[in-house]
Amino acid sequence: MDMIDRQFESHRIQRHQLDASGRWFIRGGGIEAGSASDAERSAVATIATERPVPAYDRRSGRIVDEILLMRGGQFPKWAPLLEAHQTWSMYSVLGSVHSTSRSGRVARGRFEFARDDEHVEQIWRKVRDGHIRGVSVGGQRASWVDIQPGESATVFGRRFTAGRERPLRVTTSWLMREASIVIFPADIDSGVNG
Question: How far apart are alpha carbons 138 and 59 in whole angstroms?
Answer without folding.
Answer: 18
